[in-house]
Design a protein that fits this description.
The chain is α/β, with parallel strands linked by helices. Helix content is 26%, strand content 22%. The protein contains 12 helices and 14 strands. Helix 3 runs parallel beside helix 5 and helix 3 packs across helix 10.
Length: 406
């Protein structure tokens, strides 16, 4: 018989009750529930506001294996009335939404692994990260972010689930390549609005709404529940009962529920470009310089004059509209915010006109020692390489250690 006073043979209370504590115990009673698939799933949630809070709460309770949260904003007091994961102290400490949301769902379910990115979906989430997701859920409040989320997902044939709120109204749609497309359903007016927004380099301005859209926690609960439910169907590979190719609308005042078909696909839609084969490059990271990248590409594609095609312009020079003073610089256009523009203004607030820019990184690029990160290329991004023989897609796989779920 063991001596209990020595502490040997005694089980910690967590170990003693582990056999009785099974998070999935109730779910196992559902005949068609696939606990293993849910536990292995990796889900990205873009937007951690009222709707994102509901989706994240649901995913945590469903015991989804890994959850990636993306949001560029900080918690404000107005978020507290509609967001189950945020507290008043978070506002006072000016905490990022993504970071606090990750912390709270870890507290809610310690079995879930979470990663947060405090950044912009256009600039700070490489396509290689999308490539490693099972499903993406959009909880956004602006068209520009939705457009780019749609394009990123379609390039990699990933299903994404869009949700939107307004007052007591909410809507949801499930998009996947060759079935339905967010960009295809945009009107001419909506496309014009997006082009205007894209011309604005400031992240907050580009992602802001014209006026605040009031919402309620009720509509967020309804749409967030449906988004999580549709994500489960993607994880379960259940295509018979999915809302793929359909749009759902909920009008809470009269309790009206409407389900209708999404708009037909357009042949000339920019979202329909596809990355068909990815070349993984463990030696490449976003910390490599332009010269180091080009050396790697020239070795991989000898005699084919490879160059890197960018999704945006890199500004090389600007001129003051009033002063007509021209200045040289090297800044990716999406990063050319009001703050970064100040040193190039002759007078405070002067408008600057771009006089020279490039959209390729090649041997003619004037700053061969700049890193890819400095030029706006994020971790694990998949680069579009143009060669004499066509296009190739190279992933910065050396950034894989950046993708850490805890």
């Amino acid at each position: 018989m063991e001596n209990s006073s020595s502490g040997k043979g005694k089980l910690d209370w967590r170990e003693r009750f582990q056999g009785e504590r099974d998070w999935n115990e109730v779910y196992r009673r559902i005949s068609w529930w696939d606990t293993e698939s849910v536990g292995k799933a990796t889900v990205m949630v873009v937007g951690a506001g009222a709707l994102g809070n509901e989706v994240l709460k649901n995913l945590a309770l469903l015991n989804v294996g890994k959850i990636l949260i993306v949001d560029f904003d900080h918690i404000e007091y107005s978020n507290l009335s509609r967001s189950v994961l945020f507290r008043e102290d978070d506002v006072q400490l000016k905490q990022p939404k993504s970071f606090i949301a990750a912390q709270r769902i870890r507290e809610m379910n310690p079995h879930v692994k979470v990663m947060s990115i405090n950044g912009d979906i256009l600039l700070d989430v490489g396509l290689g990260i999308f490539r490693r997701m099972d499903v993406i859920i959009g909880c956004l409040d602006n068209r520009v972010a939705r457009l780019y989320l749609n394009r990123h997902c379609f390039k990699l044939s990933k299903t994404w689930i869009d949700g939107a709120l307004e007052n007591m109204h909410g809507q949801m749609a499930v998009y996947r390549r060759d079935v339905s497309c967010y960009e295809c359903q945009l009107s001419d007016i909506e496309n014009q609005f997006i082009r205007q927004r894209l011309s604005c380099p400031d992240v907050a301005m580009r992602n802001s709404n014209v006026g605040r859209i009031p919402t309620t926690p009720i509509s967020a609960s309804v749409i967030g529940a449906l988004q999580a439910q549709e994500a489960l169907k993607v994880i379960f590979k259940n295509e018979k009962q999915t809302m793929l190719g359909k749009r759902f609308e909920f009008e809470g005042m009269n309790n009206d529920f409407i389900l209708y078909e999404s708009a037909h696909l357009k042949e000339d839609c920019l979202s329909h470009s596809l990355i068909d084969e990815v070349i993984e490059a463990p030696d490449l990271t976003c910390k490599k310089t332009v010269n180091e990248l080009l050396l790697w590409l020239e070795k991989r594609f000898p005699g084919q004059h490879p160059k890197v095609y960018l999704d945006y312009e890199v500004i090389l020079s600007v001129v003051g509209k009033e002063s007509q003073v021209e200045k040289e610089l090297i800044i990716p256009q999406p990063h050319f915010s009001e703050t970064r523009a100040k040193p190039y203004q002759t007078a405070p607030g002067e408008d600057l006109i771009i006089t020279d820019s490039v959209r390729y990184l090649d041997r003619k690029f004037p700053a061969q020692d700049m890193t890819l990160k400095e030029l706006g290329i994020s971790e694990l991004h998949i680069l579009t390489i143009e060669t004499d023989e066509g296009f190739e897609f190279v992933e910065l796989t050396g950034d894989l250690p950046h993708l850490v779920f805890t």
